[in-house]
What does this fold into?
Amino acid sequence: MSDPILRIERLTKTYPDGTRALSDVSFEIARGEFLVIIGLSGSGKSTLLRCINRLIEPSSGRIEFQGRDITTASREELRVIRRQIGMVFQQFNLVKRMSVLTNVLTGRLGYTPPVWALADYFSAPLVDRALANLNRVGIPEKAYTRADALSGGQQQRVGIARALMQEPQLILADEPVASLDPAMSHSVLRYIEELNRNDGITVLCSLHFLSLARRYGTRILALKGGEIVFDGLPAEIDEARFKSIYGDDAVAVEIT
Amino acid sequence: MPGAKTLGGTPAAPPLARGTVRRPVAWYRSWRFYLVALATLAVYVYGWQVTQIRLAELWRGAHLIAPFVTSLASPDVAVRANVLARAEAPFYYGRETPPAAASASGPLLHLSRSTGAIGQQVTAVGEGFPPGRPGQLWWENQIGQRQQLGPLRTDERGRFTATFTAPEVLGTRNLVFVEVVASVGPLRPSPTLLLVLDRMVETVFLALMGTTMGVLFAVPFSFLGAKNLTEHFPGGKAVYGLTRAFFNVARSIEALVLAIVFTVWVGLGPFAGVLALGVHSIASLGKLYSEAIESIDGGPIEAIVATGASTLQVVRYGVVPQIIPQFIAFTIYRWDINVRFSTVIGFVGGGGIGFVLQQYINLLQWRQAATALWMIAIVVMLLDYASAVVRERIV
It folds into this structure.
């Protein structure tokens, strides 16, 4: 691995109520990887992803993004770091009452002068790029539809287009398909995979289903109780490892 | 054994184990029920006495309010601008003799005497009036105060004769005059209607200005009074607490009380009403707005923060689109309340239609009061309907 895009060292997060969501998590991601994080609900997947762009403040540890420490970044530095890291959410997190196009354009807010927001102004080249990105995720005709009029799969594709506006080096995907049906899940993950392969965007994606993790991940990281219990290639997860990650009662559900 | 069930009974339940939950006691067997019933009765008996409810008064006082109720059916909205034929003649008390009237063309009024004392019988004869018309004989004293002496009707030659008693008035130089309706003019809006209309416009704009003032101040305050926006900033909790305390204190003071305070401050008139409605609206809207902000979905905000957006951008694209419809709905709702309220704010001198309504009622001018009441009812209903339509469109 040459020059990791993201290096996490001894990351720990303890919530104010005393819950220890992450303890001493350390790993690196190489440029171009599709790293899938698996684990039960509450194992710390979401906390880990949100610590990386500091939507959640880590309690201790270091997070280096392209050699810069995120945890000590000032407000302005953080803004510059965040705009290079796209994020896709389980609940899509679109602004429901705005048009699809405006939702996509919000992906560019990290680059535009804040005062433009008062006039709701986006330059023409940006609008063109937003339309191009919508075209890329296959829903150009929905540009002027209200976001909440779209199906779940379409909304998630808007979420991807929004992340694309950031021209990100890294995409954090927090259970991007957990709210979608199986067919839609594959459609959405294929778009993310395409960004990973063609654009060279590194992907850090948490998933529920092991079958999806095996299919799309180039590497898998398993969390359990806030600690890394597995870090390796998809093929290395056998029955014994599966039980150790998900508990003895778990049964693998295939999603095809 | 379902077949073994006896009438009114249930199959024997399995014996309850020790420590399990007991069956609930039927309400009519619970002493608590009777205690609560007794307490409730006591409360209402005392309430009846303390508020001096005497239903018989409704019947006994009915004749006092009857003219008002009948006036509701005939509000003072239109008058006929009649063409009058007029003639006058002086009548002096004491020994003074009035100057001889200049001989005028047209109708004439002759009095049987032009000098006399209070209580004397005087005969008035008129000629040259339109024939077969109703008229009125008037008495005007030295300082221009008028009183009616009696109705009359001209004969087919345009003459009339009327007798009256010289009334008890101050001053000596009086004027007797007669007005005969020469022709009935077209229906015109009555002066009352015009005044009421003018006050209603003032009322509606009073509500508009009050609501606008409320919105202008409530919007920025509501952001300070929203927990989810303030808690991330240093000192945010204190700001939140103070803002909420202000909302609660200002809201607990009725706008009518505020209006009295403001009439002392800025004087009688609609401006005091605007300030009273404004301050009350700031508090009410501020609280509603803050709660709307607190109930927004955190997901889109998280997503926009993650793109590297600044606070201003997050508010513009994450917060504002989510709260706009609710803000508009609350504002229309408040404007609604304010229009209704501005109709009574005049009672304490805060301007608007309430001021004239109160005057009409105090002077027992029921037909005029009815005009004002109908005006209020119609305008409030119209605005109510309009706001319902707008709210339905938006939300």
Summary: Chain B touches chain A at residues 297, 299-300, 302-310, 312-313, 316-318, 321-322, 324-325 (CB under 8 Å). The two ends of chain B are 57 Å apart (CA to CA).
